[in-house]
């Protein structure tokens, strides 16, 4: 086989291998992101609801950071090992029923419960974020 024939064969193989590697890497990046499930509202509408419920920008940003880390704004996120559920990863999940009977599917109910929890346990979402930043849970 001549060198030019080998180059013509090797170049497409290299391109395919590079594309496969890129696709695999992208897949791994998507796989490591929080799962997104269809809900009564999308993640952006859940964020808009939270923004309306938390008018103080510093408190909203702290709440946003926690929810982004905990569930990626997926109202149906479930931790397979602990059973924690929802935007704020309540454990047990049924605790959110104190905020409303639609806690399994309504981001507003989950946000209300999460805010109540953060305010009662830590004093504010910002204080909850400070704790989360150190411990990686809240």
From TrEMBL:
Residues 1-37 form the signal peptide. InterPro entries: Lysozyme-like_dom_sf (IPR023346), Transglycosylase_SLT_dom_1 (IPR008258). Residues 61-129 form the Transglycosylase SLT domain. Keywords: Signal. This is Lytic transglycosylase domain-containing protein. It comes from Streptomyces nodosus.
